[in-house]
Amino acid sequence: MPTSVKLGLDFFSLRSQGWSAFELLDYAAKLGLQSAHFSEPRFLGGLDEAHLDAVKAHADRLGLELEVGFGSICSSSERFQSGAGTAKQQLRRMFQVARRLGSPIVRCYLGSSKDREGPIPLDQHIENTIKACKSVRSEALDLGLKIAIENHAGDLQSRQLRMLIEEAGPDYVGALYDSGNAAWTLEHPLHALETLAPYVATSGIRDSAIWEVDAGAAVQWVAMGRGNVEIATIAERYAALCPGKVFSLEIINTRSPRVFAYWSQDFWEHYRDVPGWVLADFLERARSGQPYDGVPPGPLGAAPDSTEFKRFLVEQERRDVEQAVAFCKTELVFGAG
Fold it and tell me: What is the pTM of this model?
C-alpha cells in the first residue's frame, strides 16, 4: 500500500468534544494526520476574516492542509437551512471561507433518505441541486474551487450522484465519496467508489457491517477493520483510482443498526431507482455478514441525556478516532510518510 496517500479527519468525528478550531487542529496534528476537514461551519467557531486567518496560520504551523464544507444546497430538501440564505448565497459565502483557508473544495450535499420519502420526487431534488451548482459556476471556476457533493445519509446512490455531477459540470463539481453512506442506499461501498472515482475530490471513510435480518438487512457503522465491506480493498482502490486525494476519516460508530426492511412491498415505494445488479452486490454482503457486537456498553443505568452518558460518548469518540487512525497507519499504511 502506498505511503504517500494523505490521511485526514473530518471533525464531525469529534462533534461532542466542544473543542475550538485550534484544539481540533492540535488533536489532528497529535495523531500525525496530514489533513483536517471542517465539514460544518460550527467547528470553525466563526467565519470572520481575522478568525479564519488565525485558523489558517495555526494549521500552517502544524503542517495541516484544510478542507471546508457545510450542509444542503437543495432548496427542496428537508435538510436545507433556508434561514442561512439561498443556496447560491450559502455557496458563495463558503467559497470565501475556502479561499481564506486554502481549501480546494467546499463540501455540501443534497439531503438525506427522508428526501426519498416525501411528496417531492427525488429527481426534482436532484434538479434543484444541479441548479444551485450552476448558479455559482463562474465563481467556482474563478477561484479554482470544486463543489464536492457528498453521497449523504442515504440520499443518492453513486450512479445518481455521478449523473448529477456530469449534468452540472465536472469542471467545477466533484464528489465527496462517503463509504458509510453508500451502504445506506443498498449499495456496496466498493461499487460506489469505482462509480464515483473519476470525480472524487475528497472522502469520508468509515467501515460498515451488513448482515441479514428477518425484515431484510441491517447496516451498522463500526470500528475500522470490524466490518465486512472490504475496507482494505476500498483503501487500496482509493489510492489507485483517486491519486492525490485525501483519505479522510469520518468516524461515526453507531450504537444500533439501521434496518432496511426490503421484504416489505411498502419499502420499495422509495427505492424503485435501485438497479437489480447493484442490489445483488449488496445482498451478497448481507449474506456474508454477522451481527456486530463491538459497541461498548454505556454507564450502567445512565440515561442517554445524562451528564454521565454524555461524558462516556466524548471518551468513546476519541477512542474510536484513535483506533481508526492507528488501523490506517498499521494495516493500510496510510499517513505513515
Answer: 0.96
